[in-house]
Design a protein that fits this description.
The protein starts with a helix and ends with a strand. It is 20% helix and 35% strand. It has helices at residues 2-23, 32-38, 67-71, 102-105, 241-254, 271-276, 295-299, 320-326, 358-361, 390-395, 437-449; strands at 42-53, 79-93, 97-100, 110-115, 118-128, 133-138, 160-165, 173-184, 194-197, 209-211, 217-224, 236-240, 260-261, 264-268, 285-290, 306-310, 313-314, 333-340, 343-350, 352-353, 376-378, 383-387, 405-410, 425-429, 432-433, 454-460, 466-472. The chain has eleven helices and 27 strands. It is elongated and about 75 Å long. It folds into four domains: 34-54 and 74-138, Thrombin, subunit H (Beta Barrel); 152-254, Trypsin-like serine proteases (Thrombin, subunit H, Beta Barrel); 261-359, PDZ domain (Pdz3 Domain, Roll), CATH 2.30.42; 376-472, Roll (Pdz3 Domain), CATH 2.30.42. Strands 21, 22, 23, 24, 25, 26 and 27 form a seven-stranded antiparallel beta sheet that branches. It is of the alpha+beta class and 474 residues long. A hairpin with a 5-residue loop joins strand 26 and strand 27.
Length: 474
């Protein structure tokens, strides 16, 4: 009987293994049939633009008003030259609608698309620099062979992929490899979520398709890591098809994007911040500040809230929240799960449109000046600070009611060295408002006496952004 059970068990294990072997995708003998089928849908893109320069051919410059200015003015005339660049793309509609990267066609005056042996003029239907995507339309009534998007969420690490493009102007180049990693964030775009591949991708491949073995587009080749501007070293990145599809649909329909907008500045939840807030892990997005008249402000969100869920989806990391919000329809009412004062609460709000917000329009404006006056030592932190002044508030365009202290010096031995900078303004400690340097000292000493080992500092950094910082004191 024992022998029979052993034979039966061996038979079952063998059969399960055999079934798994049959279900596994075989290693392809060749990509020739797939490449032949897909080649007509991949295009080569060349663009030209005029570059203006004010280069001075003379080894010196004349001061304003000099009589020699008029004499030598012809030497200082702006010069113009034509610059060209190359890229790739692919056809998604038989009418000649093409997808590529925004950086391939950005500022282009002329766009020429080559399909096979024929060349066509193309125009831009819509472009989005924040996702680095663009949609073109070939100027012709001819019909073309399109490809379709696949479900990039089903793509797995280790799956075979094929890239076709126009590297270094060598059109119709086919390379193959595997998916090396998923969900890569390389800080290239606002919404990084790249597929990493070792299929050879080089200059000119940008905007080209990354195919699975079914011939579906699962990614748009966008970037590579190339130390010293060398060629491919087997680390390339593609925008996932699912992430791109929503943007592309909007660009075709509206000529622009319409992303959801929450109206908060966020930062990472560190281990120290999680400890202070009594969170079990470092998931979520910490709200550093809430924009005026934003959907978040109207819904009652506050600085210090930690967003754990957005519209039923977990916010696993800080970077996950902008992606979730941007992919949600403008005007939709969503529910947020928030950790506030060591309790879980929910808030409902109606999303605005990112592109219409003042934050979006002014996000690159910066004010970075500070003034030194009387310094006070905060010995427990090994830093020097001074009280914030009316001039600080005026020069840095801060809230006129803001209270706090400006950091003027940080010792190399300080626990905040490398974490804070001179010019940062401390406005809260353990969420208690800092009124002046004397009170700051008292706050920190009282926290030490309680035996607490982590400080939660709220600061305004040199970019005038509100931030939270968890600091271990020993």
């Amino acid at each position: 009987m024992k022998l029979f059970k052993k034979i039966l068990l061996t038979f079952l294990v063998f059969n399960f293994g055999f079934i798994n072997f049959l279900n596994a995708k075989p290693i392809p003998d060749s990509f020739a049939d797939l490449a032949e089928k897909l080649m007509p849908s991949v295009v080569n893109i060349s663009t030209t633009q005029t570059i203006k320069t004010n280069a001075n051919p003379l080894p010196f410059q004349f001061p304003p008003g000099s009589p020699f200015e008029e004499m030598f003015k012809d030497y200082n005339k702006p010069t113009e030259r034509k610059a060209s660049s190359l890229g790739s793309g692919f056809i998604i509609n038989k009418n000649g609608t093409i997808i590529t990267n925004n950086h391939v066609i950005n500022n282009a005056e002329d766009i020429v698309v080559r399909v096979g042996a024929k060349e066509y003029k193309a125009k831009v239907l819509g472009a989005d620099p924040y996702s680095d995507l663009a949609v073109l339309k070939i100027d012709t009534n001819e019909k073309f062979t399109p490809v379709k998007f696949g479900n990039s969420d089903k793509a797995r690490v280790g799956d075979w992929v094929v890239a076709i493009g126009n590297p270094f102007g060598l059109g119709g180049t086919v390379t193959s490899g595997i998916i090396s990693a998923r969900n890569r964030d390389i800080n290239l775009t606002r919404y990084d979520d790249f597929i990493q591949t070792d299929a050879s991708i080089n200059q000119g491949n940008s905007g080209g398709p990354l195919f699975n073995l079914d011939g579906d587009v699962i990614g748009i080749n966008t970037a590579i890591i190339a130390p010293g501007q060398s060629g491919s070293i087997g680390i390339g990145f593609a925008i996932p098809a699912n992430a791109a599809s929503n943007v592309i649909t909007q660009l075709i329909q509206y000529g622009e994007t319409k992303r959801g907008w929450l109206g908060v500045r966020i930062q990472q939840v560190t281990k120290e911040i999680a400890d202070v807030e009594k969170l079990k892990n470092t998931k979520g997005a910490l709200v550093a500040s809430v924009g005026e008249k934003s959907p978040a402000e109207k819904a009652g969100l506050k600085a210090g809230d930690i967003i754990l869920k957005f519209d039923g989806k977990n916010v696993d990391t800080m970077r996950a929240l902008p992606k979730l919000v941007s992919n949600t329809e403008v005007g939709k009412t969503v529910e947020l799960e928030i950790w506030r004062n060591k309790k879980l609460i929910t808030k409902k709000l109606t999303l605005g449109r990112l592109e219409s917000s003042d934050d979006f329009k002014a996000e690159n404006e910066k004010t970075k000046e500070g003034i030194k006056e009387e310094d006070s030592d905060i010995e427990t932190l090994n830093i020097k600070v001074r009280n914030i002044t009316a001039k600080d508030i005026k020069d840095r365009k801060l809230n006129k009611n803001l209270k706090g202290v400006v950091i003027t010096n940080i010792s190399n031995k300080s626990v905040v060295a490398g974490m804070l900078r001179e010019g940062d303004i401390i406005i809260e400690v353990q969420k208690n408002k800092v009124l002046n340097s004397k009170q700051l000292n008292q706050l920190i000493e009282s926290i030490y006496k309680k035996g607490e080992q982590t400080l939660l500092l709220t600061i305004i950094n040199s970019d005038n952004q509100r931030r939270y910082l968890g600091v271990k004191t020993n």
